[in-house]
Amino acid sequence: MEHLFGMFAFAIYEHARGRLVLVRDRLGIKPLYLAPRGGSLRFASTLPALLAGGGIDTDLDPVAIHHYLSWHAVVPPPLTILKGVRKLPPATLMTVEPDGTCATEPYWRAEFRRRLEHADWVEDDWAQAVLAALTTAVKRRMVADVPVGVLLSGGLDSSLIVGLLAQAGQRGLQTFSVGFEDVGEREGNEFRYSDMIAREFETCHHRIHVPTERMLPALDGAVAAMSEPMVSHDAVAFYLLSEEVSKSLKVVQSGQGADEVFGGYSWYPPLLRADGSGADIYQAQFFDRRPEEFAETLTDRYLLDADPSRAFLDRHFSRAGADSALDRALRLDTEVMLADDPVKRVDNMTMAWGLEARTPFLDHELVELAAACPPELKLAHGGKGVLKTAAGRVIPDVVIDRPKGYFPVPALSHIEGATLELLRQTLDESAVRARGVFRPGQVRMLLDAPNDHLTTLEGSKLWQLGLLELWLRRHGI
């Protein structure tokens, strides 16, 4: 495996030995789903492909439901939301012997520890090393027999990719940005930043405007493309963006993963000086619900006596190989949350249109370097400090110093009008009772005030419930 770089999921059948080998890439960029069934094993790149074969146990997994409601739809491997489908974890090799015996083993892990060879490095040394590693990662992902473009949001990460490609002599680079209509005070695009980068590096830039009336019709296609339910609103944005980009290109680079790898999220600073494991702080900052909320939300059939999400967190944080609480949080997000939230989202939405999205920030050598970097350097300058210092040598300061942005999809993030009506129809009382997962009274409360009940990270609790029901229906479950 040490000879392979980048993203992959594959199966090798050894005819002479009758052995099957299944492998998934180090950061879980490419998916691999499994369905053990009656002495056989099915495997596929998507969960719906396994469902299409029939005979799958489609009961919902209570532990997976708990994870889904705790971690904004993330269900850590090997679980999925369905009892009959599992997924191979990232960086894992699985062998199936002729007698049906299965064995799995991880083949790679980044060490989130300080190394002796970096003992005398200062911030500038780290920035220089990060810039060199990212330059290599970007160049690796330009190897293709077709032109390679960039999904340019106008944020630090995608802008840096464009800048590095320009420095490498790339001319006529095609870049793509998407924007939506404003809703109230919520701005629907960041074109001013992406336009700035496009002008600075003379790219062939494409602005894609999406009117609000396209959002809900596209939601069905996006949900159909989801191998697992995903609550992030930007899934629809990536779905629509990918549709347009696929008309011009078949391969793009994306800035996904930089926030997890270089410490760009709001829940990291409180962990910097944490005493003990830091698990309590991580839970308070990151988990969507307090433990007592599950009894209010789930029916008795899916209510658990234990707290599997906290147990998973404790197991992960107690593992060796991380020097501090912040290192443990960054490791968890890099190994688990990253693969099963932003990376899966981009992969599913782009592949729905035959578009290949490559993620240089998830080059494993760059991830190893970032893991060794002192956490305080990653959190400097308001987050992603060492990356910002590196970027200062490539792109304009105004993009580096701008407030952190997210993929803006106001029509879905603020639930009203047609979006609210869709959720009312999806979660009507008869449907909720028939599904038997959520308590009807809790659903009614959320429908009455959809924007008043938010998760710790300001996601919609109503959208979580509605999206799960939409996904189950769309996939015939």
Structural class: alpha/beta
The percentage of residues in β strands lies in 5-15%
CATH topology of the largest domain: Rossmann fold
Number of helices: 22
Task: Report the C-alpha radius of gyration, rounded.
Answer: 22 Å
Q: Which spans have pLDDT < 50 for at least 5 consecutive residues? A: none
| CATH architectural category of the largest domain | 3-Layer(aba) Sandwich
CATH class annotation of the largest domain: Alpha Beta
Q: Strand order across the biggest sheet?
A: 10-9-8-11-12
Question: How much helix is in the residues?
Answer: 40-55%
Total of domains: 3
CATH superfamily of the largest domain: HUPs
Tally of strands: 12
Shape: globular
Please tell me the overall pLDDT. Answer: 94
Ends distance: 37 Å
* Largest sheet, strands/sense/barrel: 5 strands, parallel
Description:
This protein has 477 residues and is an alpha/beta fold. The chain has three domains: 9-106, Aminohydrolase, N-terminal nucleophile (Ntn) domain (Glutamine Phosphoribosylpyrophosphate, subunit 1, domain 1, 4-Layer Sandwich), CATH 3.60.20; 116-262 and 325-408, Rossmann fold; 412-474, no CATH class. The chain is built from 22 helices and twelve strands. It has helices spanning 47-52, 62-70, 123-140, 156-167, 191-200, 215-225, 234-245, 258-262, 279-286, 293-297, 308-318, 325-337, 339-351, 364-372, 375-379, 385-391, 397-400, 410-413, 417-426, 429-435, 440-448, 461-474; strands at residues 9-14, 19-24, 33-37, 40-44, 86-87, 92-96, 102-106, 148-151, 174-180, 204-210, 251-253, 356-358. The strands form three sheets. A five-stranded parallel beta sheet has the order 10-9-8-11-12, sandwiched between helices. It has a four-stranded antiparallel beta sheet with strand order 1-2-6-7, with no helix packed on it. A three-stranded antiparallel beta sheet has the order 4-3-5. α5 (191-200) links the parallel β9 and β10. α3 (123-140) packs across α16 and α6 (215-225) crosses α7. The longest helix has 18 residues, at 123-140. It is globular and about 60 Å long. The mean pLDDT is 94.
